[in-house]
């Protein structure tokens, strides 16, 4: 029985990339101004959602449920900006060693990956910014074979969608 190194490497990569569970951080916010725009007809602009079409649709559907009407000729606009932040690890060296250990063990030892993003709601009228609310969302992801049972209920894409919807609900409640 001859082992093909390419097949073993592919199996390790598949096992490493499939088994993933995520745990969300509490949402935090930062306000720039306290003016409130009460208009229901508004021009919606989504920035940074080029890889997140389904998340954009969830936010857009929620806006519609809240009575916002998308009107491209409106002088008032709401820009929804999604930005990825560089994650900060408390011990970067330990994180790198853990990642290598997970890779070379074929996923037996789980690794931790941090994802941080911000969602900003910028309200403007005639190119003048009225106010801006920025929310920070974060996910701690664990990858490896031991997290197979956790990934059923904590799939990262679903957790991220839930966080973005929670942020949108918080924004519309203000």
Q: How would you describe this protein?
A:
The protein has 174 residues and is an alpha/beta fold. It has a single domain, classed as Double Stranded RNA Binding Domain. Helices cover 36% and strands 34% of the residues. Strands 1, 2, 3, 4, 5, 6 and 7 form a 7-stranded mixed β-sheet that branches. Strand 6 and strand 7 (128-143) form a beta hairpin. Helix 2 packs parallel to helix 5 (156-173). The longest helix is centred in the C-terminal third of the chain and has 18 residues, at 156-173. The mean pLDDT is 81.
**C-alpha termini separation:** 66 Å
Number of domains: 1
Poorly predicted runs of 5 or more residues: none
Question: What proportion of the residues is helical, as a percent range?
Answer: 25-40%
E-strand count? 7
Features:
174 residues, alpha/beta, Double Stranded RNA Binding Domain, 7-stranded mixed beta sheet, 5 helices, Lipoprotein
Give a nutshell description of this structure:
The protein has 174 residues and is of the alpha/beta class. The protein has a single domain (24-173), classed as 2-Layer Sandwich (Double Stranded RNA Binding Domain), CATH 3.30.160. Helix content is 36%, strand content 34%.
Q: Which helices and strands occur, and which strands form pairs?
A:
Blueprint: H1 5-18, E1 20-24, E2 28-31, E3 41-47, H2 53-65, E4 69-70, E5 76-85, H3 92-104, E6 111-125, E7 128-143, H4 148-151, H5 156-173
Parallel strand pairs: 3-4, 3-5
Antiparallel strand pairs: 1-7, 2-7, 5-6, 6-7
């Amino acid at each position: 029985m001859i082992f093909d190194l390419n097949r073993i490497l592919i199996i390790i990569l598949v096992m490493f990339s499939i088994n993933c569970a995520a745990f969300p951080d509490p949402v935090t916010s930062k306000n720039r101004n306290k003016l409130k725009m009460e208009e229901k007809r508004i021009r919606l602009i989504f920035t940074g959602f080029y890889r997140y079409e389904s998340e954009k649709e969830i936010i857009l559907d929620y806006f519609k449920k809240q009575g916002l009407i998308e009107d491209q000729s409106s002088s008032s606009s709401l820009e929804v900006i999604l930005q990825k932040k560089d994650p900060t690890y408390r011990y970067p060296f330990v994180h790198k060693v853990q990642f290598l250990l997970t890779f070379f063990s074929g996923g037996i030892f789980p690794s931790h990956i941090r994802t941080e993003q911000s969602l900003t709601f910028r309200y403007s009228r005639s190119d003048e910014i009225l106010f801006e609310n920025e929310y920070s969302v974060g996910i701690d992801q664990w990858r490896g074979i031991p997290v197979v049972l956790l990934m059923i209920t904590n799939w990262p894409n679903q957790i991220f969608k839930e966080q973005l919807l929670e942020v949108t609900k918080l924004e519309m409640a203000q």
